[in-house]
């Protein structure tokens, strides 16, 4: 049996704002951007080289969904962005205005630092150690 997570929905405030941030700031690729009619889009982004999991950027509709923007994990780290070169990406993201919540640190599982996306969702930028990858 073979399974994987194909996509995760990330509730956003605006399609174009979110697409620009994820592609221009984090360097993700826009995989699909299809107008579904009625102001709805199917907007998928993914880190460069990603083969499986993607983010579906879904514009909030209504107060309940709008309340979830930026706190989809209740203030905890929500997403874990693995990289093959932590320091390259850390410096690049900082130069593009990404707000890190802490200094980078070395853990048993790798080099990591928490950052926030444009809405305040918390992410780990993580280069796994050889033993954990």
Structural notes for this entry:
The chain is of the alpha+beta class and 133 residues long. Helices cover 21% and strands 40% of the residues. It has three helices and nine strands, in the order E-H-E-E-E-H-E-H-E-E-E-E. The strands form two sheets. Strands 5, 6, 7, 8 and 9 form a five-stranded mixed β-sheet that branches. Strands 1-4-3-2 form a four-stranded mixed β-sheet. A hairpin with a 2-residue loop joins strand 7 (105-107) and strand 8 (110-116). The two termini are 21 Å apart.
Total helical elements: 3
Sheet/helix structural class: alpha+beta
Largest sheet: 5 strands, mixed
The helicity comes to 10-25%
Order of helical and strand elements: EHEEEHEHEEEE
Q: How many beta-strand segments? A: 9
Mean pLDDT: 95
User: What ranges have pLDDT less than 50 throughout 5 or more consecutive residues?
Assistant: none
Q: State Rg.
A: 15 Å
Content of β-strand: 35-45%
Q: What gross morphology would you assign?
A: globular
| Ends distance | 21 Å
């Amino acid at each position: 049996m073979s399974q994987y997570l194909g996509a995760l929905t990330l509730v956003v405030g605006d399609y174009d704002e979110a697409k620009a941030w994820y592609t221009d700031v984090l360097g993700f690729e826009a995989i699909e951007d299809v107008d579904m009619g009625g102001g709805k889009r199917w907007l998928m982004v993914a880190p460069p080289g990603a083969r499986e999991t993607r983010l579906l950027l879904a514009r909030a509709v209504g107060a309940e969904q709008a309340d979830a923007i930026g706190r989809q994990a209740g203030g905890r780290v929500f997403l874990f962005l693995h990289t093959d070169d932590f320091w390259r990406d850390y410096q690049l993201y900082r130069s593009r205005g990404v707000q890190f919540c802490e200094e980078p640190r070395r853990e048993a599982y790798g080099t990591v630092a928490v950052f926030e996306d444009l809405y305040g969702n918390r992410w780990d930028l993580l280069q796994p150690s050889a033993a954990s990858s």
